[in-house]
Structures are given as structure tokens and as C-alpha cells.
Specification:
Strand content: 25-35%
Number of helices: 8
CATH architecture of the largest domain: 3-Layer(aba) Sandwich
Order of helices and strands: EEHEEEEHEEHEHEEHEHEEEHEH
CATH topology of the largest domain: Rossmann fold
Helix content: 10-25%
Shape: globular
């Protein structure tokens, strides 16, 4: 991890308050892996904003986010040539194929970010890649052509049916597996709203499919000191240790590590 002053190369307003920023930061670009995140100082806002790394292109990284609070709204107003203060790359829990034969990715909203990076980084791996990408409507589904090119199968799901299948992405996942049964070597990777993640974990564990989850949380420091991002642990590794720090032991974790009842009651 390094604290870096990064120069913004470009800012794209994608629509519906979603943005894509590309920033030049060679150290982070060199060491970033799917699942890593950065912590961005957003003007006078007290706490940094943790954002998943969306892509790496040479010495630059890309971030994909929605402007929905003071911090991300400040970030959305930046322009090419300006500088931002970044900590990164952060996180130790990363996406890992683990010799999977078929990787099923389930993304909701900005939860696409770490999964997009996984697809791009592992484009030439041998695993078959199937993506389910859900959003509210057609205006909030982005990077369609790139996603189709990087996957073997790609399903878009919108709540209003304006693009792809109508409904919730977790429902489409269940429908898919009614036709194509789970197989040895399946692996689910997911990131998105907690309500979606809860359903994906429930499905994966009912079918005995390993599930890697990228979780989100407010973070004070991003490096394990402040303990503001602790997550209830299902099977503590040490006696009396009932939580794990998302910033240092995540953000990607095995679903079985999470105490689902406690966690989903917290959020």
C-alpha cells in the first residue's frame, strides 16, 4: 500500500449519476489484482471513500462509481488534469478461480466493478465465465459490449424489463440453474447490494457451490487499525475472535466465513 497523488486522465459521466474515472498511478496499476480497492480522499469530507478497482490499463487504473453522497459527488466533479489523493492497493482477500471449471459472476449495480476487473484480468484463463448483471433499468446497465466480449454467456437483468430479462438478478440465476444443473468445478463470485448478496449466498450454499463475496463497508483507515469495517465471523479462527476486518482480510471472502444472521441484521 502507498499513499499516492494521482493525476486524473479522464472523467466520463455515464448517465444516471454513474461515473468512470481513469487516474494515472503506476504503483497501484502494477500491483492491483481483482478484488483490490483504493481509499480516496474526497476534498474536505472527513473519511476517505473505498472504491473497488474496476480496471487497469498500463500505468492507469479505472474506478466506476455512483455519485450518491458528499464524497462521491465531490469525486464526480473532478476534471482531467486534476489530482486526487489515493491509498492503495488495499485488501488481501481477492477473487481466485481455485482451478474452477465454470465461474458464475453475479453483479448488482456498482458491484460490477471488481467482477469486471476479474474478467479482464483472467480473460485468457481456462474457466468458462458466465455473467449475470442486474440493475434497475436499461439506463443503469453499462459496458455491455465489453462484458459480452469477455464472457462465454452474459445475462442482463433489469427490474423494469427495459433490457434483458425482467426481475431480480438472483431470480435469473436460480432460473438458469433449473436448466443447467450445478457441476463439479462451479464457483460463484458476487458483489452488489446486501439484499442481493444474501440471496446469492443462500442459493450457493443450498447447492453446495463455493461462493466468493466482495463486501462493502464504510472504512475509517482501510488498513486494519480503526476497526470500523468489522464483519461478524461464522467460524472464528481464534477463540474469542468473532469478527474479521474487511479491509485487511477482505474485501473478498468465502461466504462460509460470514455469520449471515448477524451480518444481514446489521445492515
Amino acid at each position: 500500500m502507498q499513499q499516492i497523488t494521482a493525476s486524473i486522465a479522464s472523467v466520463r459521466e455515464l448517465g444516471s449519476a454513474y461515473f468512470f474515472i481513469e487516474a494515472c498511478c503506476p504503483h497501484i496499476a502494477k500491483h492491483a489484482r481483482p478484488g483490490h480497492f483504493i481509499n480516496v480522499r474526497c476534498g474536505s469530507v472527513l473519511l476517505r471513500r473505498p472504491l473497488a478497482i474496476f480496471s487497469v490499463d498500463g500505468s492507469s487504473i479505472g474506478i466506476f462509481f455512483k455519485a450518491q453522497g458528499k464524497g462521491t459527488s465531490w469525486l464526480a466533479q473532478r476534471r482531467a488534469g486534476e489530482e486526487i489523493d489515493i491509498l492503495g492497493p488495499l485488501g488481501k482477500g481477492l477473487f481466485d478461480e481455485n482451478n474452477a471449471k465454470r465461474v458464475i459472476l453475479v453483479a448488482g449495480g456498482v458491484g460490477l466493478a471488481p467482477l469486471y476487473f476479474y474478467l479482464k484480468y483472467n480473460f485468457h484463463s481456462g474457466a468458462k465465465k458466465i455473467l449475470f448483471y442486474g440493475a434497475r433499468n436499461a439506463n443503469t446497465i453499462f459496458f455491455q459490449n465489453e462484458l459480452i466480449d469477455m464472457t462465454d454467456e452474459c445475462f442482463f437483468v433489469t427490474e423494469d424489463g427495459s433490457l434483458g430479462e425482467k426481475g431480480l438478478v438472483n431470480e435469473e440465476l436460480r432460473r438458469y440453474f433449473l436448466t443447467y444443473s450445478p457441476q463439479d468445478g462451479d464457483l460463484i463470485m458476487t458483489c452488489g447490494p446486501n439484499a442481493m448478496i444474501k440471496e446469492i449466498i443462500s442459493f450457493a450454499e443450498s447447492e453446495n457451490i463455493p461462493c466468493q463475496v466482495s463486501l462493502e463497508s464504510y472504512m475509517g483507515c482501510g488498513c486494519g487499525v480503526c476497526l470500523s469495517c468489522v464483519i461478524p465471523a461464522e467460524n472464528p479462527e481464534q477463540a474469542g475472535e468473532s469478527y474479521f476486518r474487511l479491509c485487511t482480510e477482505g474485501p473478498v471472502v468465502d461466504s462460509k466465513k460470514i455469520d449471515k444472521q448477524k451480518f444481514f441484521n446489521m445492515v
